[in-house]
Amino acid sequence: MSNPTMIFTDVDYEAQGKQVDWLYLPHSVTRSAYGAISIPITVIRNGAGPTVFLMAGNHGDEYEGQIVLAKLIRELEPEHVRGRLIILPASNLPAAMAGTRVSPLDQGNLNRAFPGDPHGTPTWAIAHYIDSVLYPMADYHHDLHSGGSSLRYVPFCSMRKSGDPALDERSMAALKAFDAPLSLVWACNPENRLAGAAAARRGLVSLGGEFGGGGDVNIDSLAMLERGVRNFLRFTGVVPAGASAPAPRGTRFIEVSSRDHYVYATEAGLLEPAVPLGAEVQKGQLAGQIHFVDNPARAPVPCHFRRAGMVVSQRFFGRVERGDCVAHLATDC
Question: Is 262-332 assigned to CATH 2.40.50.100?
């Protein structure tokens, strides 16, 4: 690498067996002059086969994925695997430990930091390691998200169109194999700083998804995610398909293809939603209205949907600022 990472580790990615260890990112502060941020990583390898890279904790307040990957680390042994499985359950560890979307060390949003910078602040250094060290090893990738503390989602698995038809076809096959009740295609990709976008640039078959929200842990979402991740691992071949593989349940395919799918607050105040999460709405329908408790005689300001579709996400926090996303839609593919 012409611009090598600052992260070091005792993990041997080529070794057979199971390694549960840490990535160490040098972080010199007053209380620890030669300190390091210790990011947990697990590598399970057994013979020849594909390499699958699973990550969660990209945003620290999104918990379902962190729990599912922690459980996999404890449950899977080398005899369960053919090939190599790399698991990063708390990718942005400082954010995960603080329960915040962004890192308390540098206010960095890992999912807006790719391809990263090896000499940048911690979040950008982590992104660089993922992009320049872990992605080149992998054939498949899954970045597990949920809505975090500020958003609620109808749970779904997703893939992101890359512009490469052959790669998109393979990612769509993986999405079908995950077999979530709802599967979303991100056809509008204005953000090239995302982990999934970076994975696509590396040629990986990559999935994402929003598996909850509101900063809690939803039991149903957790069960769906556990089932789906194991389906994905069987699809890749890194976990052999056995007699216990569940029968497919079928999925509804939806997409987000433009900025018109999003509704934004135009004023600061208290948001009153007008429709429930999961509702089917029409263009021009009321999404919510913003109230002004400091000036209660002022009429509320309405926010309207700019197209028809299904409400897959809503703001969880009641207070909004101008520019906050109030809701977003998806439409059938």
Answer: yes
